[in-house]
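User: Can you predict the 3D structure for this chain?
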Amino acid sequence: MTLFLILVIAAIVLGIIGVVAEGLLYLLIIGIVMFVAALVYLGMHVRRSGRRSRTLR
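Assistant: Here is the predicted structure, written as structure tokens:
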């Protein structure tokens, strides 16, 4: 979960810098790609952790 938060924070920072700084639109694109990668990572992590079978005692 820590990796997800780091990826999201980095994506937000790069996106803000890409929007504010003139001529650095590629940082916005990198930020969007990182955000999508973080969502894919979270989806894979949730799906993998949901497969564990829990036995009732």
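DSSP finds two helices and no strands in the chain. The helical segments are 2-20, 25-50.
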